[in-house]
Every structure is written in C-alpha cells, then in structure tokens.
Amino acid sequence: MLTKRIIPCLDIKDGRTVKGINFINIRDAGDPVELGAAYAEQGADELVFLDISATNEKRKTLAHLVKEIAAHVNIPFTVGGGISSIADVEPLLEAGADKVSINSAAVKNPILIDQLAKAFGSQFVVLAIDARKLGNQWTVHTHGGSQPTEKKLFSWSKEGQDRGAGEILFTSMDHDGTKSGFAIDPLTKLNELLKIPVIASGGAGRKEDFLEAFVVGKADAALAATLFHFGEIKIPDLKNYLKNNGVPSRI
C-alpha cells in the first residue's frame, strides 16, 4: 500500500478560515496562514486552501495570501476558488502554489482542464467535484454546492482524468461537516474507475473514518476541516492510529 496523505482543508472567506455544515452555517476558524503553518508542523502531508468568496476583484488579494502562505508553509499546498482561466492561475503559481483546484468553471467549460494541464502539467491540476445523491445517482453540483447540474460524478470524473486532471477531490455534500463518515460506496467506485489519485472529502468524524476511507474506499488521501480546526483530532494521533492499523503514512 502506498503512503496515504492527510490533508487539512482551509475554506477562506474575506481572508479568514471558516467552516460550515453542508456548505452553510459558516463560522470563523482562525487565520489561514497561522493554521497552515501549524498543520505543517504537526505533520500534515499537504494543505488545501479554497477561497469560497473569490471574485475577480479579490483575485489579487488571493495571490497575496498565497505568497504569505508559501513563506510560512513547507509542505505542498493547493489553492482554489474562482479560477476560470490560465490568466487566473499564473499569479497563484508565481506566488508559490503547488497545485490549483478547479470546480464550477470546469463544469461550465471542460476544456479548461485541457488548457491548464497543457500549460502547467497534469500534476498541477486538481479537479474538485462536489456531489450529492439525488435518487439513485450522484449528481455534480456547482457554486459552492448550491446548483445541481446535468453531470454525474463517475462520468465527469472519468472525463476530467481523460482531459488531463492529475487528481480528483471528491466531496460528498450529503456528508460534509456531519462527522458521519466519508461516502465510502462512491469513493470505492471512483478508485476502481480511475487511474489518477482520488482525495476523499466530506464527513470525517473519527479516526476510524479515515481508516475506512483508505482500506475500504481505497482513497489516496483524505481531507478534513472541522476536526482539525477545532482540535477534535490531532494529526500526529491520527497518523499513529493509521500506522498501528497497517496504513502507511509519513510521520
């Protein structure tokens, strides 16, 4: 089994880290640079920063924040939020981001995946997919999970891979912030379907949830926010637990 990654996610709004449940009921969770540096010190493998309030006017502010993060964080980090063109990506890359995450803009314009992969390399492109189970199908949602689309989780993730995405970040909106565990069934199917790494997101509540995501769901990485932001699970404790249960991770 390859080494599994633990990834804290920091949702950023107006320069602050925030967290909600099912994408609503937002509350403040601290300074993103301070939190990111602390997670790196604790042994996080990577970080994800998502600017949920990103607009064209605020993109320069995001680039400035990325530069500050890069100066204080010594592990790879992904940045997302409002990215819809190569021009949006270049300042983030120059500021020190290791990867970018695209979501709604890719659904609207799938060729964006091809363009970014060609310009910067597949390893730089993370396709984030927010999905909710409607009826018997996992339906892709956009705009912070508020708008259902015609795209389905499995066909869209396969298309993303074929267009050049280097990773899939799958968030189950039904599980997000609920601490009820990751969505294991679709996670398992994604990992059977795809050749690229899949990051599990949405629903972590216990150490056992991470173990299940890795062993049963076959995830390459697991992402969480609330648990880490409010100290409910410490990253070193989680990694020791995983190691003791046969899941290799960097300690």
What would a concise description of this structure say?
With 251 residues, the chain is of the alpha/beta class. It has helices spanning 32-42, 59-72, 86-95, 104-108, 111-120, 153-163, 184-193, 207-215, 226-229, 235-244; strands at 5-13, 16-21, 24-30, 47-51, 77-80, 99-102, 125-134, 137-142, 147-152, 167-172, 198-201, 221-224. Helix content is 37%, strand content 28%.
Give a written overview of the molecule:
- This protein is α/β, with parallel strands linked by helices and 251 residues long.
- The protein is 37% helix and 28% strand.
- It is built from 10 helices and 12 strands.
- Strands 1-4-5-6-7-10-11-12 form an 8-stranded parallel β-barrel, surrounded by 7 helices.
- Strand 11, helix 8 (207-215) and strand 12 (221-224) form a beta-alpha-beta unit.
- The longest helix is centred in the first third of the chain and has 14 residues, at 59-72.
- The protein is globular, with a radius of gyration of 17 Å.
- The model has no long low-confidence stretch (mean pLDDT 90).
